[in-house]
Amino acid sequence: MFSAIRRWVEHRRAIRRRWQADAQRLILAEEVNAYYEAQRRATRPRLQGDAGEFYHWAKVAAEVGRIVPQAAMDIDAVRAIVAEEERRGT
Fold this sequence. Notes:
The chain has helices at 2-29, 34-48, 51-67, 75-88. With 90 residues, it is mainly alpha-helical. The termini are far apart.
């Protein structure tokens, strides 16, 4: 019983470390636009029906917003990004 719980906790920690690491990589690459890039990366798997990757990149976007107070986070810009990705048909 305890080993199953321990495995589940480790699995959740690994997931958390992955989105935190991806957020840090985006921030280092382009600090101000990192939130928009994470939203773009979340849109692609959503359109492809990949729920796991969609949730991952949505968490990355949330982490970017939490870590970088100067990150641009305009909802109209996010809507434009989503519309652009939908037009691209990714």
